[in-house]
Design goal:
Blueprint: E1 6-8, H1 9-18, E2 25-26, H2 34-65, H3 91-96, H4 98-106, H5 115-118, E3 166-169, H6 171-178, H7 181-187, H8 192-216, H9 222-241
Antiparallel strand pairs: 1-3, 2-3
Length: 247
Protein backbone atom coordinates (compact mmCIF):
# COMPACT_ATOMS: atom_id res chain seq x y z
CA UNK A 1 0.00 0.00 0.00
CA UNK A 2 2.88 2.38 0.76
CA UNK A 3 6.12 2.94 -1.17
CA UNK A 4 5.05 0.81 -4.12
CA UNK A 5 7.64 -0.08 -6.76
CA UNK A 6 6.90 -2.37 -9.68
CA UNK A 7 9.23 -4.76 -11.48
CA UNK A 8 8.66 -6.00 -15.06
CA UNK A 9 8.23 -9.73 -15.40
CA UNK A 10 11.24 -9.96 -17.74
CA UNK A 11 13.49 -8.31 -15.13
CA UNK A 12 12.29 -10.68 -12.42
CA UNK A 13 12.89 -13.74 -14.60
CA UNK A 14 16.41 -12.54 -15.42
CA UNK A 15 17.23 -12.04 -11.74
CA UNK A 16 15.75 -15.42 -10.89
CA UNK A 17 18.08 -17.09 -13.40
CA UNK A 18 21.01 -15.28 -11.78
CA UNK A 19 20.08 -16.76 -8.40
CA UNK A 20 18.32 -14.80 -5.69
CA UNK A 21 17.66 -15.45 -2.01
CA UNK A 22 14.88 -12.94 -1.40
CA UNK A 23 11.26 -13.04 -2.39
CA UNK A 24 11.96 -9.98 -4.59
CA UNK A 25 8.41 -9.62 -5.92
CA UNK A 26 4.80 -10.28 -5.09
CA UNK A 27 3.10 -11.74 -8.15
CA UNK A 28 -0.46 -12.64 -9.06
CA UNK A 29 -0.51 -15.11 -6.18
CA UNK A 30 -0.82 -12.16 -3.79
CA UNK A 31 -4.54 -11.71 -3.24
CA UNK A 32 -6.26 -9.45 -0.73
CA UNK A 33 -8.86 -10.88 1.65
CA UNK A 34 -12.31 -10.60 0.00
CA UNK A 35 -13.63 -8.18 2.63
CA UNK A 36 -10.63 -5.87 2.21
CA UNK A 37 -10.85 -6.11 -1.59
CA UNK A 38 -14.49 -4.95 -1.51
CA UNK A 39 -13.63 -2.00 0.71
CA UNK A 40 -10.77 -1.05 -1.61
CA UNK A 41 -12.99 -1.36 -4.69
CA UNK A 42 -15.61 0.91 -3.13
CA UNK A 43 -12.93 3.41 -2.10
CA UNK A 44 -11.47 3.51 -5.63
CA UNK A 45 -14.91 4.09 -7.17
CA UNK A 46 -15.68 6.92 -4.74
CA UNK A 47 -12.28 8.52 -5.34
CA UNK A 48 -12.77 8.41 -9.10
CA UNK A 49 -16.26 9.92 -8.84
CA UNK A 50 -14.89 12.85 -6.84
CA UNK A 51 -11.98 13.29 -9.24
CA UNK A 52 -14.24 13.25 -12.33
CA UNK A 53 -16.49 15.90 -10.77
CA UNK A 54 -13.37 17.96 -10.14
CA UNK A 55 -12.28 17.53 -13.77
CA UNK A 56 -15.73 18.56 -15.04
CA UNK A 57 -15.67 21.67 -12.83
CA UNK A 58 -12.18 22.76 -13.91
CA UNK A 59 -12.89 22.15 -17.61
CA UNK A 60 -16.24 23.95 -17.41
CA UNK A 61 -14.51 26.99 -15.94
CA UNK A 62 -11.83 26.83 -18.66
CA UNK A 63 -14.52 26.62 -21.35
CA UNK A 64 -16.33 29.67 -19.95
CA UNK A 65 -13.13 31.72 -19.74
CA UNK A 66 -12.18 30.54 -23.27
CA UNK A 67 -8.51 31.38 -22.75
CA UNK A 68 -7.10 28.48 -24.80
CA UNK A 69 -8.23 27.69 -28.34
CA UNK A 70 -9.26 24.09 -28.98
CA UNK A 71 -7.80 23.81 -32.49
CA UNK A 72 -4.47 22.01 -31.93
CA UNK A 73 -4.18 18.34 -32.90
CA UNK A 74 -2.95 16.33 -29.88
CA UNK A 75 -0.17 14.34 -31.58
CA UNK A 76 1.23 16.56 -34.32
CA UNK A 77 0.48 19.79 -32.40
CA UNK A 78 -0.61 21.33 -35.70
CA UNK A 79 -3.09 24.18 -35.29
CA UNK A 80 -6.13 23.94 -37.56
CA UNK A 81 -7.19 27.38 -38.73
CA UNK A 82 -10.72 28.08 -40.01
CA UNK A 83 -11.09 28.71 -43.72
CA UNK A 84 -12.65 32.16 -43.98
CA UNK A 85 -12.75 32.01 -47.79
CA UNK A 86 -15.05 29.00 -48.06
CA UNK A 87 -18.53 29.77 -49.37
CA UNK A 88 -21.17 29.89 -46.63
CA UNK A 89 -24.85 29.04 -46.81
CA UNK A 90 -27.31 31.84 -46.36
CA UNK A 91 -29.49 31.89 -43.25
CA UNK A 92 -32.52 30.85 -45.25
CA UNK A 93 -30.66 28.02 -46.92
CA UNK A 94 -29.44 26.80 -43.53
CA UNK A 95 -32.98 26.66 -42.18
CA UNK A 96 -34.12 24.65 -45.17
CA UNK A 97 -31.26 22.20 -44.99
CA UNK A 98 -32.49 19.09 -43.19
CA UNK A 99 -28.96 17.70 -43.22
CA UNK A 100 -27.51 20.68 -41.39
CA UNK A 101 -30.39 20.77 -38.95
CA UNK A 102 -29.88 17.07 -38.17
CA UNK A 103 -26.16 17.56 -37.68
CA UNK A 104 -26.67 20.56 -35.44
CA UNK A 105 -29.26 18.73 -33.36
CA UNK A 106 -27.05 15.69 -32.91
CA UNK A 107 -23.85 17.61 -32.20
CA UNK A 108 -22.30 16.82 -28.81
CA UNK A 109 -22.06 19.80 -26.49
CA UNK A 110 -18.98 19.31 -24.33
CA UNK A 111 -16.95 21.44 -21.98
CA UNK A 112 -14.76 18.63 -20.64
CA UNK A 113 -13.64 16.48 -23.58
CA UNK A 114 -11.50 17.91 -26.34
CA UNK A 115 -13.02 18.43 -29.82
CA UNK A 116 -10.61 15.80 -31.17
CA UNK A 117 -12.03 13.15 -28.81
CA UNK A 118 -15.58 14.26 -29.59
CA UNK A 119 -15.10 13.42 -33.28
CA UNK A 120 -15.46 9.78 -32.20
CA UNK A 121 -18.95 10.49 -30.91
CA UNK A 122 -18.01 10.91 -27.25
CA UNK A 123 -19.47 13.48 -24.88
CA UNK A 124 -18.81 14.54 -21.29
CA UNK A 125 -20.75 11.58 -19.90
CA UNK A 126 -18.16 9.27 -21.49
CA UNK A 127 -15.31 10.63 -19.34
CA UNK A 128 -15.03 7.35 -17.32
CA UNK A 129 -13.94 5.60 -20.53
CA UNK A 130 -10.68 7.57 -20.39
CA UNK A 131 -9.70 6.90 -16.79
CA UNK A 132 -6.47 5.19 -17.91
CA UNK A 133 -5.16 8.47 -19.40
CA UNK A 134 -7.68 11.17 -18.68
CA UNK A 135 -5.30 14.01 -19.54
CA UNK A 136 -5.25 12.94 -23.19
CA UNK A 137 -9.04 13.21 -23.42
CA UNK A 138 -9.89 16.52 -21.77
CA UNK A 139 -9.84 19.95 -23.39
CA UNK A 140 -6.54 21.69 -24.09
CA UNK A 141 -5.12 24.13 -21.57
CA UNK A 142 -6.26 22.16 -18.51
CA UNK A 143 -3.46 20.61 -16.45
CA UNK A 144 -4.40 18.07 -13.78
CA UNK A 145 -2.20 15.74 -11.73
CA UNK A 146 -3.80 12.36 -12.34
CA UNK A 147 -1.08 10.63 -10.30
CA UNK A 148 -2.41 12.35 -7.16
CA UNK A 149 -5.69 10.41 -7.19
CA UNK A 150 -5.78 8.43 -3.90
CA UNK A 151 -6.59 5.06 -5.45
CA UNK A 152 -4.84 1.73 -5.04
CA UNK A 153 -4.58 -0.97 -7.71
CA UNK A 154 -4.54 -4.53 -6.30
CA UNK A 155 -1.15 -6.24 -6.86
CA UNK A 156 -2.73 -8.94 -9.04
CA UNK A 157 -4.01 -6.27 -11.47
CA UNK A 158 -0.85 -4.20 -11.92
CA UNK A 159 0.23 -3.60 -15.54
CA UNK A 160 2.67 -1.37 -17.40
CA UNK A 161 1.77 1.26 -20.00
CA UNK A 162 1.43 -1.48 -22.64
CA UNK A 163 -0.98 -3.51 -20.55
CA UNK A 164 1.56 -6.22 -19.69
CA UNK A 165 1.47 -7.55 -16.11
CA UNK A 166 4.14 -6.38 -13.69
CA UNK A 167 5.13 -7.58 -10.25
CA UNK A 168 5.10 -5.61 -7.02
CA UNK A 169 8.64 -5.22 -5.71
CA UNK A 170 8.89 -6.85 -2.29
CA UNK A 171 11.85 -4.76 -1.10
CA UNK A 172 10.14 -3.79 2.20
CA UNK A 173 9.27 -7.39 3.01
CA UNK A 174 12.75 -8.58 2.04
CA UNK A 175 14.51 -5.91 4.09
CA UNK A 176 12.40 -6.76 7.12
CA UNK A 177 13.49 -10.40 6.77
CA UNK A 178 17.25 -10.04 6.18
CA UNK A 179 17.95 -6.36 7.02
CA UNK A 180 20.60 -5.89 4.33
CA UNK A 181 20.67 -2.82 2.11
CA UNK A 182 23.28 -4.50 -0.10
CA UNK A 183 21.00 -7.45 -0.85
CA UNK A 184 18.12 -5.07 -1.60
CA UNK A 185 20.29 -3.20 -4.09
CA UNK A 186 21.51 -6.35 -5.84
CA UNK A 187 18.41 -8.52 -5.83
CA UNK A 188 15.55 -6.04 -5.78
CA UNK A 189 17.11 -3.78 -8.39
CA UNK A 190 17.18 -0.49 -6.45
CA UNK A 191 19.95 2.09 -6.66
CA UNK A 192 21.84 2.93 -3.49
CA UNK A 193 20.10 6.28 -3.12
CA UNK A 194 16.69 4.76 -3.81
CA UNK A 195 17.27 2.06 -1.20
CA UNK A 196 17.81 4.66 1.51
CA UNK A 197 14.93 6.89 0.44
CA UNK A 198 12.38 4.09 0.06
CA UNK A 199 13.29 2.30 3.29
CA UNK A 200 13.31 5.59 5.21
CA UNK A 201 9.91 6.59 3.79
CA UNK A 202 8.39 3.28 4.83
CA UNK A 203 9.94 3.59 8.29
CA UNK A 204 8.31 7.01 8.71
CA UNK A 205 4.94 5.75 7.45
CA UNK A 206 4.89 2.87 9.95
CA UNK A 207 5.91 5.24 12.76
CA UNK A 208 3.11 7.66 11.84
CA UNK A 209 0.50 4.89 11.72
CA UNK A 210 1.70 3.52 15.06
CA UNK A 211 1.44 6.93 16.74
CA UNK A 212 -2.04 7.50 15.28
CA UNK A 213 -3.28 4.11 16.46
CA UNK A 214 -1.97 4.69 19.99
CA UNK A 215 -3.90 7.95 20.15
CA UNK A 216 -7.11 6.30 18.93
CA UNK A 217 -7.10 3.05 20.85
CA UNK A 218 -5.81 1.51 24.07
CA UNK A 219 -2.15 0.52 24.13
CA UNK A 220 -3.18 -3.04 24.98
CA UNK A 221 -5.07 -3.43 21.68
CA UNK A 222 -3.52 -6.14 19.50
CA UNK A 223 -3.41 -3.94 16.38
CA UNK A 224 -1.77 -1.11 18.30
CA UNK A 225 0.79 -3.50 19.77
CA UNK A 226 1.46 -5.11 16.39
CA UNK A 227 2.25 -1.79 14.69
CA UNK A 228 4.37 -0.68 17.63
CA UNK A 229 6.41 -3.87 17.43
CA UNK A 230 6.66 -3.64 13.63
CA UNK A 231 7.86 -0.05 13.86
CA UNK A 232 10.46 -0.84 16.52
CA UNK A 233 11.90 -3.86 14.72
CA UNK A 234 11.96 -2.14 11.34
CA UNK A 235 13.62 0.94 12.87
CA UNK A 236 16.34 -1.21 14.48
CA UNK A 237 17.16 -2.91 11.18
CA UNK A 238 17.22 0.44 9.39
CA UNK A 239 19.57 2.05 11.93
CA UNK A 240 21.96 -0.91 11.75
CA UNK A 241 22.34 -0.26 8.01
CA UNK A 242 22.40 3.55 8.34
CA UNK A 243 24.00 4.29 11.75
CA UNK A 244 24.61 7.94 10.88
CA UNK A 245 20.90 8.59 10.28
CA UNK A 246 19.12 10.66 12.90
CA UNK A 247 15.34 10.84 13.24
Amino acid sequence: MFGRITMPMATYKRKKRQGIHSKVVFGKSLHMPPAFAKVLERHNKDAWKVFRRYVHTVCDYAARSNTVKQNVLPLSKVAIQPNHHSPSLSENATRKSNVLKTLQASANQSTTLSPFVMTSGHSDKDLPMFDADILQAIRQGVHIEQTKIPTLIPPSELTDTRGKPVYLNAYVYDFFKHGSKTVIRKENGLDSGDVFDKLKDFKLVIAAISVALEELGPKSDNVVRAFRQLGNEYSKKFKLQYPSYRD
